[in-house]
Amino acid sequence: MSPARILIVTAVTAERDAVVAGLERNGPSTDTGTGTDTEVNADTELHADTELHADTEVIAAGAGPAAAAAGTATALTSAASAGAPFTLVVSAGIAGGFEQPPGTVVVASSIVAADLGADTSEGFASVADLGFGRAEHRPPPALARDVAEAAGAVYGPVLTVSTVTGTAARARELASRHPGAVAEAMEGFGVAEAAALHGVPALEMRTVSNSVGPRDRAAWRIPQALAALGTGCAAALPVLRAWEA
Ligand SMILES: O=C(O)c1cccc(C(=O)CC[C@H]2O[C@@H](n3cnc4c(=O)[nH]cnc43)[C@H](O)[C@@H]2O)c1
């Protein structure tokens, strides 16, 4: 059995560096007994002259679903063209939490485009409601659950938004439209769309830096969330590497 080749997509370099630091810190424990040591390849630029011998690559593709989709698609195409395609993609980073305190790790049971659609007099209609697209991707459930368990994560829907929620009213609206949602971030759906185009499964792992609700940037606990992100990704890596479609 050959280990999965994993592409981890973050938005910003601070997230990418936190993931790489976590994976490197926990490197020895990531050996799954296949005789292959984990090598982590941190790409500094999407088109960097990347050596694709490593089984795990971590990129910072930019903030928002469009940058995430473009960066993910580019990385997947480059790897496939080089004869070493990725077999799993993970959207990773910090997030706003619905009821989850800072530092909580969350793993998506579904990756939901929460503001892609149309406003109507009857309320929001998603692209799926409108009949011209999909509004949700579902990661392989057994894998996502195993990853959540390994990382001690809360498991539930993670929303992708293009605008960070900044009021209590908007937070209530999203929560009522997506019961059980555990977090919102800005890239997961874009990463999953690109992965789906390549026929590669996608997961999303987030760590909570702030609450979804009234904007209070001073209350964001970014160092705590970044530390949890490294630890969570390191705990997940053996499960990811052992996965076979
Ligand atoms: O200022 C910093 O040092 C810093 C370090 C790491 C990350 C950041 C970001 O601003 C990341 C933006 C990224 O975070 C996600 N995010 C976090 N909280 C929320 C939220 O409440 N709603 C939506 N997205 C959130 C998102 O994926 C952004 O791309 C800054």
Keywords, please?
245 residues, alpha/beta, Rossmann fold, 5-stranded mixed β-barrel, two-stranded antiparallel ribbon, 7 helices, 11 strands, binds the ligand O=C(O)c1cccc(C(=O)CC[C@H]2O[C@@H](n3cnc4c(=O)[nH]cnc43)[C@H](O)[C@@H]2O)c1
- Report mean pLDDT, rounded to a whole number: 90
Helicity range = 25-40%
Major beta sheet summary: 5 strands, mixed, barrel
Q: Kindly name the structural category.
A: alpha/beta
Would you give an account of this structure?
With 245 residues, this protein is α/β, with parallel strands linked by helices. It has a single domain (6-242), classed as Rossmann fold, CATH 3.40.50.1580. The chain has 7 helices and 11 strands. It has helices at 13-25, 65-81, 127-130, 141-151, 168-177, 188-197, 222-242; strands at residues 6-10, 40-42, 56-60, 88-97, 105-113, 117-120, 123-126, 136-137, 154-160, 183-185, 202-211. Helix 1 (13-25) packs across helix 7 and helix 4 (141-151) packs across helix 7. The chain is globular. The N and C termini lie close together (11 Å). The model is unreliable at 28-39 and 44-53 (pLDDT under 50). Bound molecules: ligand LNDFFVEH. The ligand O=C(O)c1cccc(C(=O)CC[C@H]2O[C@@H](n3cnc4c(=O)[nH]cnc43)[C@H](O)[C@@H]2O)c1 binds next to helix 1, strand 4, strand 10 and strand 11.
